[in-house]
Design a protein that fits this description.
- By secondary structure, this protein is an alpha/beta fold.
- It is 39% helix and 17% strand.
- The protein is built from 7 helices and 7 strands, in the order H-H-E-H-E-H-E-H-E-H-E-E-E-H.
- It has helices spanning 3-14, 16-23, 34-46, 78-89, 107-110, 124-137, 185-203, and strands at 26-30, 50-54, 94-98, 116-119, 142-146, 159-164, 167-171.
- Strands 3-2-1-4-5-7-6 form a 7-stranded mixed beta sheet, with helices on both faces.
- Helix 1 (3-14) crosses helix 2 (16-23), helix 3 runs parallel beside helix 4 (78-89) and helix 3 packs across helix 7.
- It starts with a helix and ends in a 6-residue tail after the last helix.
């Protein structure tokens, strides 16, 4: 398949104006686990032109039940494993990867060129720290966060909310990991889909939920 063929396929399904906006978009993804890896794949398939990916972790067997990795990726850095897959889906996407732990101190520097950042951590403290840092230090950047997607409750409880002008939150907002509640692929991927959809809508200039 050639680049021209890939472009023509996307244009035929999205229309030229949508394709051009997504092609020129640049989105950051902080965390490449169950949320981040699936968000990245959806955005790559949609034709988003540039992604900035950051995660310090490696692929473990416990990741395979919900994250977009395969047995062949075990032991690989998530940033490398995901880059490999994204290129298989969209060979022409621009990727910048960071094998680093994102904190409130380095988030603004790493994602400074991203108008939209998808927060995809599984630690509530890290989520809050990233969101606070970005909203404070990058005044023109939107954050699309995930909150509450564990367990096997109704899929209808996963939704997108808009609590602040530059903050969108996807999930049910309440279901956290516990002794009898674990992360399972369907609800994690539903939340990731909400985040990817919100990011795409922002790329298109649609700020309502």
């Amino acid at each position: 398949m050639t680049h021209k063929e890939f472009e023509e396929m996307l244009i035929s399904r999205q229309t030229l104006p949508v394709y051009e906006k997504l092609k020129n978009a640049r989105i950051g993804i902080a965390g490449l686990g169950g949320l981040g890896s699936n968000i990245a794949m959806m955005l790559a398939r949609a034709g988003v032109g540039s992604l900035v990916l950051a995660d310090f972790d490696t692929v473990e067997i416990s990741n395979l039940n919900r994250q977009h990795y395969f047995i062949r990726h075990l032991g690989m850095k998530k940033s490398m494993a995901l880059e490999e897959q994204l290129k298989e889906v969209n060979s022409w996407i621009s990727l910048k990867t960071y094998d680093i732990r994102i904190t409130g101190k380095n988030a603004a520097e790493i994602f400074k060129d991203c108008p939209i950042i998808c927060e995809a951590f599984d630690n509530p403290v890290s989520k809050a720290e990233l969101t606070s840092a970005v909203l404070s230090d990058l005044p023109n950047t939107y954050v699309v966060a995930g909150s509450g997607m564990a367990g096997h409750s109704s899929a209808n409880n996963i939704r997108t909310t808009h609590p602040m002008r530059r903050l969108y939150v996807c999930g049910d907002g309440v279901t956290e990991i516990g002794n009898d509640v674990s992360l399972i692929a369907p609800r994690v991927q539903l939340c990731a889909a909400h985040q990817a959809n919100a990011a795409i809508r922002l790329c298109l200039g649609l700020t309502d939920i």
